[in-house]
Amino acid sequence: MNMLSESPRVVTIGASADLDAAIAALVLANVEDPVMRWVFDTPLRMMTYAPRLFRVLVTHSFLAGSAQRTDDGRAIACWQPPGVEDDDGEIAAIVRDGCAPEKLEDLGGVVEQLQLYRPKEPYWYLSALGVDPVAQNQGRGALLLRARLDECDAAHRPVYLWSSNQRNVPFYERHGFEVQAMLRVSTCPPMIPMVRRAR
Length: 199
Hints:
The chain has 199 residues and is an alpha+beta fold. Helix content is 41%, strand content 17%. The protein has seven helices and seven strands, in the order βαααββααβαβαββ. It has helices at residues 19-29, 34-39, 43-63, 88-98, 104-114, 140-155, 169-174, and strands spanning 10-12, 67-70, 75-80, 124-131, 159-163, 178-179, 192-196. It has a seven-stranded mixed β-sheet with strand order 1-2-3-4-5-7-6, sandwiched between helices. Strand 4 (124-131), helix 6 (140-155) and strand 5 (159-163) form a beta-alpha-beta unit. The chain is globular and about 45 Å long. GO terms for molecular function: acyltransferase activity, transferring groups other than amino-acyl groups. InterPro entries: Acyl_CoA_acyltransferase, GNAT_dom, Trichothecene_AcTrans. This is N-acetyltransferase domain-containing protein. Residues 36-199 form the N-acetyltransferase domain.
């Protein structure tokens, strides 16, 4: 149910000047994310390394022409179109620097498993979706997701994501995603690969 008093629109992030605002919104949206807080397990690590991580995701999505936000800047979606991949080396370096060393092997094991669930055919990848906490549960995340999914359906493309928060799984299921597995290694919270089949 859309509870927005005014109807926001989905816009493509088209200027590098907008990247900082998108990164800030994603950091705020993820301050209670179980996997994010397990990886960056102190306030200092979270506020040092999460912005760097989201800068990579937002920038890559922006360069691919597929970073989106609501026009009020409260919700952000980072997409990778078929054939475009994030720079895993850059992401791995940030995680390696920010994560407690004793957790790195466990984390690497889960991330390796996640790769097994990516669709075999060309697909869209949702690398990040976040809503500023003061604007959550008002329909912005659904608005962003539906906008891209309509395009994916028109092109008959599957969509892949992995959820780092079990509470978000029903939201994605309502939009046609299916849980592929619940991946967990040692003390790392579950990572949940999900696929929305081509329509």
